[in-house]
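Progress note, sequence design subtask.
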């Protein structure tokens, strides 16, 4: 018998929720003098795959390295909308967002950022590069470790994250189909 709640699939979303709630509580209950204005950019990384290959883009700006499509939210934009916008701008392609798999907070280009890493399935191998990137490559998922020195990101667990996201998508699809049969 399968569990009612799939905690493994919900863990990244719970982490995002708890982080947001803690931030709101700190702001609400901190003494007025202790409060300070912190501007945090909401950013994302989209581990993007099609079939059994992962897309990496070569950046034109510092740091000059390879990485997956990424970007930031604009004011009034949802994270999902930001991913679709940036994906279209950077690759000329669309994607299906499968799930959030990681979060981190730190500094990037001199500003505080809160980043969410998603696994996204591209709709094709077609890539039309933007001016932000000079090249692209599709790497077999099982060969990612041999490309680790090209990026600043740790890609060792990406095959596992992609497999987890694919399995999650199938469970969602089965739940919807199962719900329709009843």
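Output:
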């Amino acid at each position: 018998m399968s569990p009612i709640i799939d905690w493994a699939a919900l863990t990244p979303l719970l982490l995002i929720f708890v982080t947001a709630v803690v931030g709101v509580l700190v702001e609400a209950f901190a003494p007025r003098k202790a409060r300070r204005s912190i501007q945090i950019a909401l950013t994302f990384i989209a581990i993007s795959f099609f079939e059994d290959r992962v897309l990496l883009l070569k950046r034109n700006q510092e740091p000059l390295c390879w990485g997956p499509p990424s970007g930031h939210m604009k004011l009034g934009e949802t994270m999902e909308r930001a991913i679709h916008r940036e994906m279209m701008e950077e690759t000329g392609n669309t994607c299906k967002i499968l799930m959030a798999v990681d979060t981190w907070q730190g500094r990037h280009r001199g500003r505080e950022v809160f980043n969410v890493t998603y696994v996204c399935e591209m709709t094709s191998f077609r890539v039309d590069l933007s001016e932000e990137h000079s090249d692209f490559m599709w790497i077999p998922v099982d060969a990612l470790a041999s490309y680790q020195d090209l990026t600043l990101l740790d890609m060792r667990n990406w095959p596992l994250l992609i497999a987890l996201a694919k399995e999650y998508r199938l469970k969602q699809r089965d739940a919807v189909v199962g719900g329709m049969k009843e």
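The radius of gyration is 18 Å. Work on this subtask will continue into the next period as scheduled.
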